[in-house]
Design brief:
The structure holds 2 protein chains of 2 kinds. Chain A is an alpha+beta fold. Chain A folds into 3 domains: 50 residues, no CATH class; 89 residues, no CATH class; 103 residues, Immunoglobulin-like (Sandwich). Helix content of chain A is 45%, strand content 20%. Chain A has 7 helices and 8 strands; from the N terminus they run H-H-H-H-H-H-H-E-E-E-E-E-E-E-E. Chain A has an 8-stranded antiparallel sheet with strand order 5-4-7-8-1-2-3-6. In chain A, strand 1 and strand 2 form a beta hairpin. In chain A, helix 1 runs parallel beside helix 3, helix 5 crosses helix 7 and helix 6 packs antiparallel against helix 7. Chain A is extended, with a radius of gyration of 27 Å. Chain B is mostly helical. Chain B has 2 domains: 91 residues, Orthogonal Bundle (Rna Polymerase Sigma Factor, Chain: A); 79 residues, Winged helix-like DNA-binding domain superfamily/Winged helix DNA-binding domain (Arc Repressor Mutant, subunit A), CATH 1.10.10. Chain B is 70% helix and 0% strand. Chain B is built from 9 helices and no strands. The longest helix of chain B is centred in the N-terminal third of the chain and has 23 residues. The radius of gyration of chain B is 18 Å and the shape is globular. The relative contact order of chain B is 0.09. Classes of the chains: A alpha+beta, B mainly alpha. At the A-B interface, helix 1, helix 3, helix 4, helix 7 and strand 5 of A face helix 1, helix 2, helix 3, helix 4 and helix 7 of B.
Amino acid sequence: MSHMNHEPYETLAATYAVGALDGQDLVDFERHLADGCDVCQAALRESAETLATLARSRPPMIPPPAVKEELLRRIAAAPVPQSAARPRPRPLVWAVGTVAAVIAGAAFTGAFVASRYEAQLGVMARETAALRARVEREEAALREQLAVYRSAADLLRDPQAQVVTLRGLGPSPEATARVIWHPANGGYLFVANLPAAPAGKAYELWTIGDAAPQPAGLFQVDASGRAAHRIAPVEGGKPVKVFAVTLEVEGGVPKPEGPMVLASAK
Amino acid sequence: MATIGADLVRQMAAGDRDAFSVFYDRYAPVVFPLILRIVRERADASDVLQEVFWEAWRDAPGYDASRGTPEAWMVMRARTRAIDRIRSTRRRSETFVAPLDENLAAAPRDSAPDAAERASNRGTIITALDRLPEAQREVIELAYYAGLTQTEIAERIKQPLGTVKTRIRLGLERLREMVKTPS
């Protein structure tokens, strides 16, 4: 099939290179790649180099120094990566290290015992890999949360930052919220005791200055009624007099339509 | 030049932390603007950047120079992780869903600004991407920077799926020619 007409695959390869292939096309193309198509592999390599050149053609930007500092700290604390000679993942190697003594003992007792331990080793390696994947996922979630708290704390250190209290209204009198707000950098909304939005609905935040209310993002609350929501700065740094939250359709609306559930005092 | 980068990755694979430091200084300024362009928030971009370089350190032993330059290796990682980030925030609807591209959202297609105007709107230099025909630039931006799939792009620009794929291919081919022979 693949040598009959290759042209359609070239279109799929381009779409794959920009990360947009989906559905049956994606399945077909990945199968084609797995069959070992050198032409498509080469096309993907060339596209990746093109996109890299495109990235380099933009003016470089020095990232915040804290990123490198943190990376160097993590690397100093982490085990050294395994040599390229070992094709398979670290968990196995790690497991080999921890049960090396057991293996040695088994070899002493007899070859068939050793083979039993090797089978067990495989199981351990798989379990270790699964555990590691879970820890990594949890770590990523925690890091994301930490980043929010850290940025909020940074914001609070700025003398220009204000803390604004929002009170629950109408349907949700128990709800409370605070906004940490910086005119130039935007801020964060922290919500508590707000009931989950009904299916198909979401909460929408508004910033109100002298003109019409401006949409400031959609959010949902978690099972405990809490939410942390990043607020982008208002265009041109215009002052915000009131922060308000309404209940709207899930996709959000350009002007508030639904009931107001939280608002700051004027 | 590329061989210096490849050497650095080899040294990283052997656990050389100084090599990592040089590698970071060399590639972070290239991938950071790309990540920032995709995720838009500086704090998010810093997070993603850290993740990307952490993975580079971890995965350095698996790097194969015959399969691409370290730059392409890093740019691809950076783009993928940045898109993962915006997709997960979109899913959780926690963050303001910004228009995918201000230029696309603001300008009706028939009065699209020309390349120079678009570039100056964004405050950047004109890249090869800005010199593509509008229809091709649009689909590549929606895919590569906004993380839309071919089906989502077709819905958004109201064109058949086949047209979307063809435009992506033609655009990418033209980009390749342009970066090979920069004018």
